[in-house]
Amino acid sequence: MNEPMPEIIENMPTKIDDTWVEELISLTQKEICSYRMFLNQLKAQQNAIIDRDVLQITESREHAEEFMNNAKQSSLDRRNKMQHISAQIRPTKELQSLEQVIPIVKRQYAARLNELREKLKSVLNEIKSSNQMTAFLLTQSINYVNKNLRLIYDAADQSQAYAANGEMQHSKKYSTMVQVV
Predict the structure, then answer these.
(1) Would you say 9 and 106 are in contact if contact means Cβ atoms under 8 Å apart?
(2) Which of 70, 124, 165, 173 satisfies CB 3.0 to 4.6 Å to 34 for a cystine?
(3) So what's the pLDDT on residue 4?
C-alpha cells in the first residue's frame, strides 16, 4: 500500500516556515492517535457484542462516540491548519490533503508527512473494516434473537392446557412476549 512519495519541489518559493510544518505534523499525529483510540473502542465493542454483554456494549458505544468526536475535531484542526497556509501560498488553489502539502515542504518534512499520511490511511481503512465487522456481528445477534423469539412463539403456540371443565384445550395462539415485540 506504500505509494511512491510525491515529487518534492525543493526550489519552489514558499512562505511555509518550519514551525507551521511542525504544527501540521503534530496535528496529524494527534489525529492518528485519536483514530487509533476510536478503533480500539470499536474492537472492545465487537468483543462485547460477541460476549452479549449489554452493559459493556453501552459503555463501549459511549466511549467510541467520545473518541470519534475527538478524532473529528483533530481532523478539523489539521484541515484548518492547511487552509490557513493555503491562503498564503496558493490563494487560487486550496490545500485539502497531506498529499498536496508534501511536495511543497522541505524534504525532511516531506518524508515524515508521507509516513503520517500512510499511517492515517491505514488506520482509516482499519476503522472501515471494523465497522463492517461490527455490522455483521450485530446482524448475526439480531438473527439469533429473532430465532429464539420464534422458538418461544412456536412453543407457546403448541402448548396445551386443561380448561375449568377438565377438557384439554390449546392455550393462547400468541405468546405475550411476541405480542410486545
Answers:
(1) no
(2) 70
(3) 53
Q: What are the pLDDT digits (tens) for 91-148?
A: 556 677 788 888 888 888 999 999 999 999 999 999 999 999 999 998 988 888 888 8
All three cell numbers of 152: 418461544
Mean pLDDT, residues 82-98 taken together: 71
Angle, CA of 159, 165 and 170, to the nearest 5°: 20
The DSSP bridge partners found for residue 162 are 168
Query: Which own/partner pairs from 108-117 qualify as long-range (CB within 8 Å, at least 24 positions apart)?
Result: 109/18, 109/21, 109/22, 109/25, 110/5, 110/6, 110/8, 111/5, 112/25, 113/21, 113/24, 113/25, 113/28, 114/5, 114/6, 116/25, 116/28, 116/29, 116/32, 117/28
| Side-chain-side CA neighbours of residue 127 (13 Å) | 19
Give pTM, 2 decimals: 0.70
Alpha carbon of 132 to those of 46, 135, 175: distances in Å? 11, 5, 35
